[in-house]
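Reviewers of the previous submission asked for a worked example of the structure-prediction workflow described in the proposal, so we include one complete record here. The input consisted solely of the amino acid sequence. No template or homolog information was supplied to the procedure at any stage.
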Amino acid sequence: MAFTCLPVNLVVSGNHILIPGVAGKDIKVFAANIQANLITTFSLKSVTINLTGPMTHVLGGTFSLPLTDNQFYFQCGVGEDLILNISGLTGNVGGFILYIQDFV
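From that input alone, the workflow returned the following structure tokens.
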């Protein structure tokens, strides 16, 4: 299984397509680490699925999903984008997403 590591570096609120969907493929997230340097709320979703609820992070807060035995945490719908929604005092939101995108 070959993972792709996507760097995250965002500074504005809104919906951000991190990984565009591809027809016939799904996206599975195996690890992530996202940090915010201001009080920020974010969530992960695909087009039709809320993958997380809103998570509020204080100054320097971190959302971390360690890689564990090749088990994925989230799976987007087939052909759907992986979207990071950011709201609040954005500042800088950075980190990485480790994923695979493969045919179903």
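The chain has one domain: 4-103. We consider this example representative of the routine output the project will generate in years two and three.
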